[in-house]
């Protein structure tokens, strides 16, 4: 039963004319699917309704053709033809008594309009502010444009009502929405009645909310999402100015939705931000207004959530990532199953789906965005098929997730792990600076497996082919992972880098095994995700003189997709790491490396006593290939299938491994996967109907 300390999280609370059944508020979040995958997005939100959220929002919906953020895939509400897709979402959200919200966005200075080819409109004529420095500028809205824009918001509000929504969130945070662009002196340099004083800068949002209340306010609630602090220095909309704004406009929206300044700040990864990191910026705002306040902070602990409400910091617990990692978080708290919560690890892999315009993944919840495509439910799984037993070899994220899901299906499962401890790469990487929360990947799975009688764990069991053939398991799942390469093969070099053996070379595995370089260190990063930056910072803080060399124009380039790149660069500078960009390694010598410019091939020498090689990983697939070579012996050994999954098949981020493990478990005996792979698509796809 529910812990009474958490009762406060289940108190209903009014938002405008509506009543939220509890305090669990899924704030708008992107998912990479948007208008391209409306059924997939609707099903994903529907799962959250089932999981007990009181309020559930869409991602941003663009209200008019004059402002869109192609290439990013969000929702569109440009005309009546967009209503059915939105209606599908609201209907899914409203199951189980949740309120359905839609976030309306006019991107202003943030929308390059690549798709519609319209001239962008913004409070002040400035270059468009995007991740990619697009060579596009906006025209300043004139009075007629402002009148039009107010009408477009009203049109959009009327459409959202037809689409079945209860709440409208006006987007003015993260630098993305026009309301922030008007409020901030950085993006609003107007000299008319819409610029200058705070009262003038707040005029536009006041007008739009008044218009909308006239149009739909009798039945819908209007919320305003604003930045807690724009964090761009003197000109920006600061926390002090936000408080002044709220005080001046106490009753403006039906709810204040407080997000942090930039998206990077707001969705801070666990490497840089703790749970409830925005508390100081939010504290006290509630006393300025009688309207309810929602705030975010990667909340996964019910104790922290309850404290936030008890101490009057916020009224609603805003969650994006925690609701992705565990859509059933409210239900689990309600049922007294707190230990079953699949806590977000703060890796921001979910955000990469949006940033790469693909479809989002979650490291912790492999069913995210597969609810409709593959019919995967985060809490339910098909009973087992024809066979009985599975031997999972390797206990990294792939092996542990396979074992967890297989056990739920009812298979007899054994997990053999060569090391004395479980967890694979996660057990090792969680010990690196800033990555401890990533350990939740193994903690959650080991706990869940520990609750089940049909999984046996065998540590210290490095299996050979003969062992596997002797054990008598029907299905063999090989999740034996990968090892970092020392020879430099990655992107710059597809064959080993010419090297003098006198230069000591350390891989990330060596460092995680406790080996340490001596003297000056060159770290070569041709991997481009987090590992190079993490190790460079770590070694520098341990007292080494570290030079990080990378062929990329950015340190840890791929972390631009996880919104970490800027913070990583700052950390490296602070730690005293010398950063050399656009530079490769031509050859390795005793006491030095020869570098080459990525563009001109101009050579240089960097002296060092040690080289740390963060290049690529070699899959540990020897056991798999040896087993395949003994296929003639399978029948006698009782083996029906052998599959290679996770990093052992192809190394990737941890989310790829949990997905692979989950997929293995779902597909076993299902006919979806066969040795010859089949000729049909493995998931459902929304195909655009021809006009
Ligand atoms: P993934 O990310 O795909 O889950 P990991 O590298 O995290 O892969 O985990 C793989 C695990 O498999 C490691 O803990 C490793 O010790 C273990 N392993 C590798 N080969 C064998 C083997 N032959 N028998 C048992 N365990 C193995
Ligand atoms: Fe959390 Fe990572 Fe999942 Fe995103 S991908 S919800 S940050 S665990």
From TrEMBL:
Q: Which InterPro entries match?
A: Aldolase_TIM (IPR013785), FAD/NAD-bd_sf (IPR036188), NADH:flavin_oxidoreductase (IPR051793), OxRdtase_FMN_N (IPR001155), TMADH/DMDH/HD_second_a-b (IPR054428), TMADH/DMDH_FMN-bd (IPR037348)
- Is the keyword Iron in the record? yes
- Residue ranges of domain NADH:flavin oxidoreductase/NADH oxidase N-terminal in the record: 9-338
Query: What protein is this chain from?
Result: NADH:flavin oxidoreductase/trimethylamine dehydrogenase
Q: Which residues form the TMADH/DMDH/HD second alpha/beta domain?
A: 507-601
User: Its Gene Ontology molecular function terms?
Assistant: FMN binding; iron-sulfur cluster binding; metal ion binding; oxidoreductase activity
Keywords (A to Z) from UniProt: Flavoprotein, FMN, Iron, Iron-sulfur, Metal-binding, Oxidoreductase
Which organism was this protein described from? Answer: Acidocella aminolytica 101 = DSM 11237
Q: Which Gene3D superfamilies match?
A: Aldolase class I (3.20.20.70), FAD/NAD(P)-binding domain (3.50.50.60), NAD(P)-binding Rossmann-like Domain (3.40.50.720)
Q: Which family does it belong to?
A: In the N-terminal section; belongs to the NADH:flavin oxidoreductase/NADH oxidase family.
Entry cofactors = FMN; [4Fe-4S] cluster
């Amino acid at each position: 039963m529910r812990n009474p300390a958490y009762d406060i999280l289940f108190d209903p609370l009014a938002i405008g004319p509506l009543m939220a059944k509890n305090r669990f508020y899924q704030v708008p979040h992107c998912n990479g699917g948007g208008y391209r995958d409306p059924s997939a997005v609707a099903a994903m939100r529907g799962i959250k309704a089932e999981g007990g959220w009181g309020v559930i929002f869409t991602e941003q919906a663009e209200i008019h053709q004059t402002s869109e953020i192609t290439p990013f895939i969000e929702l569109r509400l440009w005309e009546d033809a967009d209503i059915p897709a939105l209606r599908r979402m609201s209907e899914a959200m409203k199951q189980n008594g949740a309120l359905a919200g839609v976030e309306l966005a006019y991107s202003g200075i943030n929308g390059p309009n690549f798709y519609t080819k319209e001239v962008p409109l913004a409070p002040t004529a400035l270059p468009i502010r995007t991740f990619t420095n697009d060579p596009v500028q906006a025209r300043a809205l004139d009075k007629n444009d402002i009148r039009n824009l107010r009408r477009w918001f009203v049109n959009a509000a009327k459409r959202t009502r037809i689409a079945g929504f209860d709440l409208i969130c006006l987007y003015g945070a993260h630098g993305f929405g026009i309301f922030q662009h008007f409020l901030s002196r950085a993006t609003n340099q107007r000299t008319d009645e819409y610029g200058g004083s705070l009262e003038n800068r707040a005029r536009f949002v006041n007008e739009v909310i008044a218009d909308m209340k006239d149009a739909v306010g009798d039945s819908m609630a209007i919320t305003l999402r604003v930045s807690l602090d724009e964090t761009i220095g003197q000109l920006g909309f600061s926390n002090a100015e936000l408080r002044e704004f709220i005080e001046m406009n106490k009753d403006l929206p039906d709810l204040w939705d407080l997000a942090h300044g930039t998206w990077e700040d707001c969705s801070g990864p666990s490497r840089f931000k703790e749970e409830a990191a925005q508390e100081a910026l939010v504290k006290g705002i509630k006393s300025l207004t009688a309207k309810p306040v929602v705030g975010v902070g990667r909340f996964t602990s019910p104790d922290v959530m309850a404290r936030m409400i008890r101490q009057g910091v916020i009224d609603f617990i805003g969650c994006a990532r925690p609701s992705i990692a565990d859509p059933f978080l409210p239900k689990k708290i309600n049922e007294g199953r707190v230990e079953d919560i699949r806590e977000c690890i703060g890796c921001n892999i979910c955000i990469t789906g949006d940033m790469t315009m693909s479809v989002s993944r979650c490291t912790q919840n492999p069913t995210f965005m597969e609810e409709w495509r593959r019919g995967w439910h985060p809490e339910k799984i098909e009973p087992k098929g024809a066979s009985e037993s599975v031997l999972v070899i390797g206990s990294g994220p792939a092996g542990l997730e396979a074992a967890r899901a297989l056990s739920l299906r009812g298979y007899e499962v054994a997990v053999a792990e060569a090391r004395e401890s479980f967890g694979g790469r996660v057990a090792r990487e969680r010990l690196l600076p800033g990555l401890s929360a990533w350990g939740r990947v193994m903690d959650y799975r080991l706990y869940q497996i520990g609750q089940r009688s049909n999984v046996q764990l065998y540590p210290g069991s490095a299996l050979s082919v003969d062992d596997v053939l002797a054990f008598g398991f029907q299905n063999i799942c090989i999740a034996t992972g990968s090892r970092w390469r020392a020879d430099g093969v990655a992107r710059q070099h597809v064959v080993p880098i010419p090297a003098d053996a006198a230069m000591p070379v350390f891989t990330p595995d060596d460092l995680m095994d406790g080996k340490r370089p001596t003297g000056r260190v060159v770290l070569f990063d041709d991997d481009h995700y987090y590992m190079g930056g993490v190790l460079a910072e770590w070694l520098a803080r341990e007292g080494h003189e570290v030079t990080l060399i990378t062929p990329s124009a950015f340190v840890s380039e791929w972390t631009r997709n996880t919104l970490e790149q800027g913070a990583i660069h700052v950390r490296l500078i602070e730690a005293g790491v010398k950063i050399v960009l656009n530079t490769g390694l031509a050859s390795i010598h005793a006491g030095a490396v020869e570098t080459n410019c990525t563009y001109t091939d101009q050579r240089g020498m960097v002296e060092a006593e040690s080289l740390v090689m963060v290049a690529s990983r070699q899959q540990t697939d020897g056991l798999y290939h040896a087993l395949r070579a003994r296929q003639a012996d399978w029948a006698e050994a009782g083996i029906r299938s052998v599959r290679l999954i996770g990093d052992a098949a192809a190394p990737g981020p941890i989310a790829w491994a949990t997905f692979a493990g989950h997929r293995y478990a779902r597909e076993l005996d299902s006919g979806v996967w066969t040795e010859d792979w089949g000729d049909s698509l493995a998931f459902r796809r929304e195909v655009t109907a021809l006009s």
